[in-house]
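hey so u asked for the seq, here:
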Amino acid sequence: MDQPKSNGFLHDRATLRNASGAKDAPKTPGGDSQELTTQKLFVHGKIEVGITCPNCQRTKIMKMEEFKGSQHLFRVKCPCGSAFNVLLEKRAYYRKPTNLRGCYSKKPDPETQGWRLVVKKLSIKGMGFQIDRACSVREGDILHVQFTLDNQSESVIRGKVIVRNVNGEDVGAEFLELDPNAKKELGFFLMA
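ran it, structure tokens below
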């Protein structure tokens, strides 16, 4: 299968798919199992994006109109012979990977009346977390959450969220309310 040319770079459309559906990272051009470096680009609201070869620093512009959905992972081959992965992230806010313990409840005091959660992703606007499979959480539920940041002051974040999606044990939620200093603490934590 011929690979389409894109401003000097070749990108393999056969590997172009939502990152959540990708089974493995694309292999090197020779097909061996060596992992390629991945260039992650935040492209929210952009019409074009510059992709830079990590080997020769050659930069080419790609139009974003051909990419639908929130994430795309694909392999790029530069004319210098270097191959690398590109992950296009269209989300509006940076999401920091985390592993923070906490709790949640449908009642205002999650610490004494709630269930355990583990925050896996955190942004200024929301959070992704895992719950015990036995607990019932549905899209649209309003939850009270509490978790501790792993920063130097071990800041406790308390707030109210609305559940936006549920996939088994994985829950995505948007913040509705945060304690007075929580947004500030969260902002510093995300920048670190």
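DSSP finds two helices and 13 strands in the chain. Residues 182-191 form the longest helix (10 residues).
lmk if thats what u needed
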